[in-house]
Amino acid sequence: ATIICADKTGTMTQNQMVVVRLWADDSLLMVTGEGYHPEGEFRRDGQPVDLEEYPGAQLLLRGALLCNDAYLETSGLDTQRSYRLVGDPTEGALVVAAAKAGFWKEEVEEVQPRLAEIPFEAERKRMTTIHPDPTTNGYVAYIKGAPDVVLQLCDRVYLRGREEPLNPERRDEIVQVNASLASQALRLLGVAYRRLKELPEEPQADQVEQDLVFVGLLGMIDPPRPEVREAIALARRAGIRTVMITGDYPDTAMAIAKDLELFHNEGGLLTGAQLDRMDEVEFAGCVEEFDIYARVAPQHKVRIVEALKEKGHVVAMTGDGANDAPALKRADIGVAMGVTGTDVSKETADMVLTDDNYASIISAVEEGRIIYSNIRKFVFYLLSCNVAEILVIFLAMMVGWPLPLTAIQLLVLNLITDGAPALALGLEKGEPDIMERPPRPVKEPVINREMGWGVIIQGIAITTITLIAFRVGLDWFPNNLPAAQTMAFATLSISELLRAYTSRSERQSLWSIGPLSNRYMQWAVAASLAILLAIIYVPFLDPIFDTAFLGVREWMAMIPLLLVPSVAAEATKLFLRRQRL
Questions:
Q1: N or C: at which end does the chain have fewer Cβ atoms within 10 angstroms?
Q2: For 206-230, what is each residue's pLDDT tens digit?
Q3: Which of 70-74, 462-466, 520-524 has the weakest average pLDDT?
């Protein structure tokens, strides 16, 4: 892929809302902690504070906890306790924030159980629950919802343990605080209350949700996954661009993108509404300018994919819902979420992300590059060896020489000498610069021009030294063809074993990757060399493989020849590296 279009929520972020700011008692407090672990501090100006000094903050957290349908499940011992959220992530963040202040839902609800409620509705943008009020022996209604909606229903504000009139100045101050926190990509909720003398039999919104006392604001965020920033940087080095697609507001998307070091162009954000106003031609002309798409719907994803593909990009698209299926289908690589994804999206996608993590996509890209590179090494090695074996036989026949190799010796070369090192090449860990290379062209064949020249050079080098060894053997042993054939067989076998080491990288020198760093190669070469020596020096094997004993003189003649293909391979790689500079 050249572009990865990834969802923000859950893929780039943790999908765990966390309260990080609260405003109450005319004070802005920071809340520390991560995830759903109820451990953290409340700070003001960087210093820890005692919430006993902030009754408004305590009431804010208590109200958010009671007007809430989520809860935490705990398991394990105190030293190894784990927590799991049951319910909406946004409400869960409020439960965790209250627990950090010492308000546990089970304990609080024992004192103030829920007696009635007005459920949340998208049109109303708020929720109300009614509980006993221990301070007055009456009842209290807690209202939680969108800050602007809740604030409109209030005529008083709770400040430092007292109810104060909500005059225009205080209302404007709350609006400004809300706007400031929203600009930091925080999702905000407001909390208010109203004391009731009697418990309504069937509570109605127009009766309960009026003349409220505003308590404060809670700001939360779905934090980025810590490993995603590095993954995006790694993808960038690999020539892969990351595009964020989200249904969230532009400010939220921009803040997360900047945190992840994804967003570099202040104009590189497009909303779904802006996209709707563009025709296909206009959008295709500017699609590459945008790093972020905010407030988009599933149908927008299809347009984004098609426009990028028209520009020649190989596009990977993530999705988890059934309505994401068309975009996953249109993308070159559809990636479904394994945890939150629907069955429809998983069946449509080409790949399922088991942990819903963007970093896993980059890990898959890296693993795919390693596998593809190892396949090329495997093919490169076998082709160069087999071409040499064919040329040795062909050229010897052309000049009227006896056959340099017997049929059984060729069989040994293909099954043992070539086979074991080739399998070891398939187990290479990957070269250090594997993620520093640009994506390969879509239509590039496995055997490209560069590999083709490499096969020719290696084929000629191995053929040449094998024929030289055979010619020397014929001159030294004019009446002993098996001895000459054994010299050719040994030269070809060992040069191919040494060639396996230089095949471990198409670009890097053998010394830069470490000659002994692939232990499977050591075992493969050692086993093949042992078999070769056994074939030559075990007497009862001589007639089977048509070999003869080789002395020191023969080896001294062959050793300089054995190194020629490896030197040629390293020289070729050096030339290619300099050509790319």
A1: C
A2: 889 999 999 999 999 888 888 999 9
A3: 70-74
Give yes or no: 542 in active site: no
At 504, list the tokens.
């471990």
**Alpha carbon distance 499, 489 (integer Å):** 15
CATH 1.20.1110.10 intervals, the chain: 371-580
Residue burial 229-247, b: 16+ Cβ < 10 Å; e: rest: bebbebbeebebbbbbbbb
Helix (H, G, I), strand (E, B) or coil at 121: strand
Band (24; pLDDT cuts 50, 70, 90): very high
Q: What number does CATH give the domain 371-580?
A: 1.20.1110.10
Domain limits, CATH 3.40.50.1000, in the chain? 228-356
pTM of the model: 0.77
User: Which CATH superfamily hosts domain 18-33+43-67+103-221?
Assistant: Calcium-transporting ATPase, cytoplasmic domain N (3.40.1110.10)
Buried b / exposed e across 207-218, counting CB within 10 Å, b at 16+?
Answer: ebbeebbbbbbb
| Cβ atoms of 243 and 3 closer than 8 Å | yes
- State whether residue 157 is helix, strand or coil: strand
| CA–CA distance, 559 with 552 (Å, rounded to integer) | 10
Q: Where are the alpha helices (DSSP H) in 296-336?
A: 298-310, 325-330
Q: What is the pLDDT of residues 116-153, one digit of tens each?
A: 999 998 788 899 999 999 888 899 999 999 999 999 99
Output DSSP code: residue 9.
I
CATH 3.40.50.1000 fits 228-356, yes or no: yes
